[in-house]
TrEMBL record:
It comes from the Bacteria. InterPro entries: OxRdtase_Mopterin-bd_dom, OxRdtase_Mopterin-bd_sf, TAT_signal. Gene3D superfamilies: Oxidoreductase, molybdopterin-binding domain. It comes from Allopusillimonas soli. This is Molybdopterin-dependent oxidoreductase. Residues 1-23 form the signal peptide. It holds the Pfam family Oxidored_molyb. The keyword Cytoplasm does not apply. Residues 95-234 form the Oxidoreductase molybdopterin-binding domain.
Amino acid sequence: MKPNFSRRRMLTGLMAGAGVAMLAGCDRMTQSTQFGALLRNTEKLTMSGQRLLLGRQSLAREYSVADLSPVFRANGTQSPDSEEYAHLLEHGFVDWRLQVDGLVQQPLSLSLADLKRLPSRTQITRHDCVEGWSAIGQWQGVHLGRILDIARLKPGARYVIFHCADELEKTFDGSGRYYESIDLPDAYHPQTILAYAMNGKNLPVAHGAPLRLRVERQLGYKHAKYLMRIEVVSAFDTLWGGRGGYWEDRGYEWYAGI
Ligand SMILES: Nc1nc2c(c(=O)[nH]1)N[C@H]1C(S)=C(S)[C@@H](COP(=O)(O)O)O[C@H]1N2
Ligand SMILES: [Mo]
């Protein structure tokens, strides 16, 4: 019982202290044989270390309304230029549907109204882009985990792929289309939501209307905008560049934890 107790105390301390405390905590953590073996066996402390030590359920910091950025920059695609999207936008997204398929027992086709009828979560968080800017915004949407529960995962489900409406790069084969992926622990994280509102209003086009992902423990490029389809898969190596995302296929890390 005793080692368990002290390990739990260390974890609590780590969660409270975040980044800086984590380095000091790691030294102590390696003294525990189980954690030591775990760390020696993992090549990437950024991914495995951070996630196992801090816990997959630890929350990103949340802010107050007073902290909202007066200007929240838009990045990447700011208005998908396809005819399909133009049509959807013109009709206020009433014809838009979110497809949920792949390794699920009950594929879904959800309207914006369907999503808005489900219980929602509102969170004020800081968005961090690898390009070196941050902004604090308020997001409202449905837990991704709730949607996955409604669709009921099939055995073998491991990742959720987000297919977007926009092509960030024009290519002949469609490989310039934006997409992203996360694993199930991130999908079920309490702050991982499909957001339809930003700062109290319907999601603006520049920020991903009608629906975008918020996955608050990860960097900006993971937060897929202009969602069209969610596909549950066992692996993503056969998809486009095989690295699990538009930017990942161009060299960025798949796990972009912050
Ligand atoms: N569909 C899509 N999602 C996207 C992008 C994009 O170009 N297309 N850019 C990503 C990047 S790099 C960032 S920083 C954020 C920007 O979100 P914002 O425009 O709301 O600031 O969206 C991410 N999601
Ligand atoms: Mo970004």
